[in-house]
Structures are given as C-alpha cells and as structure tokens.
Amino acid sequence: MNGTDYAEFRTDLNHEEFYFDVDDDVKLHGVLFKPDSIASVGTIFHYSGKGMHLMSSIQESYKPLLKKGFQIFCFERRNFGKSNGDATNSLTLKKDALFIFDEIIKLDNVVNKPILIWGQSLGGAFASMNASERQEKIKGLVLEGTFSSFPDIGKVYANALNLENFKWIVPLIMNNDFPTEENIKKLTIPTVILHSKSDKQVPYELGKKIFEKANKNNTRFWDIDSKHIMGIYDYEEKYVGEFIKMIEK
C-alpha cells in the first residue's frame, strides 16, 4: 500500500457504506456514520484534510458529533483510500463532489433534516465550493485550517513540496478552480471560520484572508490555539456547539 489506501474498511461506529459509480470503471468510496441510540438531528457533509482517509484518526473526530445526534458523511476522492480513478483533473474532482452531495441529500434518513458542510485544511476548498454551489440546500458551513486559494498555499510550499507525491494537486494550483476566498463571498448562510495562530501547516494569515472576503453579516472568525485541524479535540464543547447553533436557527 502507498499510505493512502488500505485493504479493508473497518469501524466500531454505526455506519452505512457506499460506492458511487461516477465514471466508467470509477467508483468512489464513502461512509455515512450514524448516532447509536438517538435519532439524527441533522447531517454533516465532511471534506477531510489531505491524507485523512476513512481508516485514519478521522473516525475519532466524529465521536463528539455523533454523541449529539449528528450523522456524518465523508467520501474519499479518486485514487485515495478505497476509491479508484485518476485524480489529475480539478473539474472532475468538483463534479465528483457535487454528484455525491446530491446523492446523499436524497437519502431517506437525510432528507427533510438540516444539512451542514464541514471542511478542514485541503477539504475546506471543496467545502466552500460545495456550499457556494448548493447554498439553498444547506444550513451552514464550518471551515478549519483552510487556505484562501490553491495558488496561495502553493506559494507557501513551493520550496518544500515534492510534486512527485502530490501530482494531483498541480492542476488545482494552476487552474485555481476552488478559490475559497471567492466562494466565501457568495454565502449568506451561517459560516464559521476557525484557524489556529500556531498552525504550522496552513498559515493563520490564509485563514484570515478568507474571512476578509466573507460577508460579515453571516460569518464569524474564531481564533484558536491548537495544532493543525485539531480544534475538535481541544475545543470539543464549543466546536460541537457551533454545529448545534446552526441547526437551531
């Protein structure tokens, strides 16, 4: 294995597993994690950070939300985890994300209940795109440790990035098809942007740059002091509370 895939999906959490046919011979793997003993209060569509496949520590981060009745869906992009296919076309990745979102919101246990989008790090670019394209379908957006655009983060890592290991990110940097700082302008739904001042992977300034472009009538910025996208662990009660407030509005 290359570190981004695994032999078998396993979890102790209540869940439903999916494979989506998105193209000829291309199947994308996703999982809907469900609360154990209480009825779902809503669904969080999660776009995870780079390297966070569904057998990573990601499952642990879902537990505080599951306890409060949220169900959480996440899928693995092409050529990652148990998904196959070529991930070198940024517009294809966008099409995949919107197709899967549209399929999930039609599920019987998802429809007619609040839907939120949660994006962390790299996943924040996809989350803001999804939110801007389907704003009428969702109640709110939470972004953590996200960068303003692929060109901006590309500049940060220009000297350190080994492009042999990250070929799939090149078209995103070149085309900037997921400009978070532009997508955020379109949103009128409740939005929270949180970023750690001590984030060593995505500079704090790139999170602030997103907020600068956002509609201040519906967007709040939350400073935290944590490692990169670790806020759910260090600020559990307040973090989960942000999702709860969004579904109560």
From TrEMBL:
SUPFAM superfamilies: alpha/beta-Hydrolases
Official protein name in the record: Alpha/beta hydrolase
Naturally occurring in which organism (per UniProt): Aquimarina hainanensis
Molecular function terms, GO-annotated: hydrolase activity
InterPro entries: AB_hydrolase_1, AB_hydrolase_fold
Pfam families: Abhydrolase_1 (PF00561)
Keywords on record: Hydrolase
AB hydrolase-1 domain residues: 63-155
Keyword Zinc: no
Domain of life: Bacteria
Alphabetical list of Gene3D superfamilies matching this protein: alpha/beta hydrolase
